[in-house]
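BUG: 3D viewer hangs when loading the predicted structure for this chain

Environment: internal workstation, default settings.
Expected: structure renders.
Actual: progress bar stalls at 90%.

Input used:
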Amino acid sequence: MLMKKWQTILLICIVAVIIIAGAKPLLVSIFGEWPGFPSNYPAEDYDPRLTVQASSAVPVIQAAELYYAKHHQYPMEGKDLLPFLTSDLPTEGQLYGWAYVNETEGFQLYQSLGWDPRLIYVHTTSSSHWVFDPGDGSPAKKIQLKP
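Structure tokens produced before the viewer hung:
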């Protein structure tokens, strides 16, 4: 009886591995590529995939500028931007998937792009730029994007 139970568990595990292994080609056929970005993604200036990701930050960036215009400082927390967003949020309390971090002279927005990598928007009172962080310990890369 005990042997039969372990055989059943082993069979379930094998079937699960086969299903998961078979899911990648299916997802690739549906989405055209594996969802998310690997840490070795070759981020470059004006990258079309990263530009799409960056575009979702535009309403949050605009909200931060509206907040700054009213309060003469950037908010301490991302939730303070919610009243300044000009369009409806898909989920209350979220900034279109972006996390907000207050910095001494500005703010950063970042979004996870997969297991490790992140896209980061760095804004100070004098400049702003995008950064692709592979998240695997290799150096982050400053990139040009026009969302």
